[in-house]
Specification:
single chain, 183 residues, mainly beta, Maltoporin, Chain A, nine-stranded antiparallel sheet, 3% helix
Length: 183
């Protein structure tokens, strides 16, 4: 219960195998996200009347750890969300405010490569490379800001890639590689 209102039951079904070298999992779930404190109370711009997001999502993840120090993972997902919350400019002002978009279809592919290993007895290295292709489109035309049906959401890059890595010597870790790029 939130503010004396019942929230829906949010079911999830996960089917996976637990192989040593390879794993596949399928997940189907109901999504429900209440507006955040910022979306409701931020001044100026927050709105008390912004509605919760709700919808369904499915994803399929394939993970392989065939080699001792290397793990790869690929995820394919699909989400359809009603009342998606997006911050948009208020007409004629320099203020942004959260607005519910009628329906958003988000789908994509994530790829990750992770590894770690010992260099010497007290030294180890860790790294991760990732890339994602995301297509999040409005399923209804939006008047403000003018956004055509089927166009990519504002502030949602279509392609992202990054690298992360570090070296640990005894109890000291150095992480010189931050996330890289978004397009």
């Amino acid at each position: 219960m939130i503010e004396n209102q019942k929230t829906p039951i949010v079911p999830s079904l996960v089917i996976s195998n637990a192989g040593k070298a390879h794993q596949i999992s399928l997940r189907i779930q109901k999504n429900y996200r209440l507006p955040t404190m910022n979306e409701r109370y931020w001044r100026p711009g927050g709105r008390l009347d912004v509605l919760p997001e709700s919808g369904w999502s499915q994803d399929l993840t394939m993970t392989s750890k065939k080699y001792k120090y290397l793990e790869t993972s690929v995820s394919i997902y699909n989400r359809v969300i009603d009342n998606w919350i997006q911050w948009v400019p208020v007409d004629g002002q320099f203020i942004y405010s959260p607005t519910n978009i009628a329906k958003v279809w988000s789908r994509g592919v994530d790829f990750q490569l992770k590894g770690d290993g010992q260099i010497r007895p007290n030294q180890s290295i860790t790294y991760a490379l990732n890339a994602a292709f995301v297509k999040s489109t409005n399923q209804v035309e939006i008047p403000i800001p003018l956004t055509a049906k089927g166009s990519q959401l504002l502030y949602t890059p279509t392609f992202t890639a990054g690298a992360d890595g570090g070296i640990s010597v005894r109890e000291i870790s150095i992480w010189p590689f931050p996330q890289l790029c978004k397009f």
